[in-house]
């Protein structure tokens, strides 16, 4: 937990061990796309910051983002994928879909935002995933400056994009600044206003954003960032890469902060105590023991 000035509020575990932000970087990647001339409408900016579930509304907005700039899904360089949502996959198969498509990838909105920026600035539409491409260089420089920590060496994310190196201390500062600084206000606003576009209807990050005055963004391999409006940032990393563990740790942190009323705690209970399955049946629940050290 970190305040906007970088002061450490509380922590647990090794907060200076490096890892990759993965999709938790998307709010900042979307901000650079918009600043670079992407000209995204609010729902489009939400999709640029999204790890979406591939529901029809997600796909429709991504297609709209591309067509508005004279582009198409053929310009996307994320790999073909089925949606994250099982319901969306079921609908597609029932309608005759035979294989995955790039526009269904959970990162297609981010890619569409970058393509919009490239079209606006006259940057190459091919090669936009190279770390040396102008849009990626701007992102790396911006996140380095925002967090006061170099993001290199960059890795390669599941969607083919550069993924930025960080620590939980730095990630918490990034989200504290998402919560507080004017230049990121538009991204914060759309993420809070449209959490189901940024994620989906049943995921931990979207449900927290519905229940509290916060935005949250999950990343692959068990990390999640949360920005409490006007106040602070929280970063969680589960070192075994388990998303449910990261969600439970986030709930325990919010509870320790006194942010969860009984009503909200009840609503978020499935993420605070995720089920443990055995033989296809629920055999228990994960119970988080979080030893926060307060500064």
Explain what this protein looks like in three dimensions.
With 295 residues, this protein is α+β, with helices and mostly antiparallel strands. It has a domain at 1-17 and 167-295. The protein has 13 helices and 12 strands. The protein has helices at residues 26-38, 42-48, 56-67, 86-94, 108-121, 134-147, 168-180, 185-193, 195-198, 204-211, 243-256, 262-267, 269-272; strands at 2-3, 10-11, 19-20, 155-156, 162-163, 165-166, 214-219, 223-228, 232-237, 275-278, 281-285, 293-294. A hairpin with a 3-residue loop joins strand 7 (214-219) and strand 8 (223-228). Helix 1 packs parallel to helix 5, helix 1 (26-38) crosses helix 8 (185-193) and helix 2 packs across helix 8 (185-193). The longest helix has 14 residues, at 108-121. The termini are close together.
CA(first)-CA(last) distance = 10 Å
Task: Give the DSSP E fraction (strand runs of 2 or more residues).
Answer: 5-15%
Number of helices: 13
Q: pLDDT under 50 segments (min length 5)?
A: none
Order of helices and strands: EEEHHHHHHEEEHHHHEEEHHHEEE
Our Rg estimate from Cα atoms comes to 18 Å
What share of the residues lie within helices?
40-55%
**Physical arrangement of strands within the biggest beta sheet:** 1-9-8-7
The coarse overall form would be: globular
Please count the beta strands (DSSP E, at least 2 residues each).
12
- Main sheet: strands, sense, barrel: 4 strands, antiparallel
Instruction: Please identify the structural class as seen in this structure.
Output: alpha+beta
């Amino acid at each position: 937990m970190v305040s906007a000035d970088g002061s450490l509020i509380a922590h647990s575990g090794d907060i200076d061990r490096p890892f990759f932000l993965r999709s938790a970087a998307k709010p900042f990647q979307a901000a650079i796309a918009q600043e670079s001339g992407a000209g995204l409408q609010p729902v489009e900016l939400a999709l640029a910051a999204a790890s979406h579930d591939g529901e029809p509304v997600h796909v429709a907005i991504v297609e709209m983002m591309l067509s508005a700039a004279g582009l198409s899904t053929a310009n996307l360089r994320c790999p073909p994928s089925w949606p994250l949502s099982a319901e969306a996959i079921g609908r597609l198969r029932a309608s005759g879909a035979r294989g995955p498509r790039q526009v269904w990838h959970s990162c297609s909105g981010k890619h569409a935002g970058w393509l919009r920026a490239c079209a606006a600035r006259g940057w190459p539409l091919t090669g936009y995933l190279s770390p040396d491409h102008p849009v990626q260089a701007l992102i790396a420089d911006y996140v380095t400056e925002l967090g006061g920590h170099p993001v290199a060496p960059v890795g390669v994310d599941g969607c083919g994009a550069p993924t930025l190196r960080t620590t939980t201390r730095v990630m918490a500062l990034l989200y504290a600044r998402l919560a507080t600084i004017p230049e990121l206000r538009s991204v914060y606003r759309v993420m809070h206003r449209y959490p189901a576009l940024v994620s989906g209807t049943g995921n931990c990050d979207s449900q927290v954003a519905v229940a509290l005055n916060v935005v949250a963004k999950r990343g692959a391999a068990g990390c999640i960032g949360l920005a409490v409006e006007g106040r602070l940032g929280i970063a969680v990393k589960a070192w075994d890469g388990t998303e449910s563990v990261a969600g439970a740790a986030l709930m325990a942190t919010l509870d320790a902060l006194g942010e969860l009323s009984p009503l909200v705690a009840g609503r978020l209970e499935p993420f605070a105590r995720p089920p443990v399955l055995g033989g296809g049946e629920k055999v228990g629940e994960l119970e988080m023991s979080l030893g926060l050290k307060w500064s």
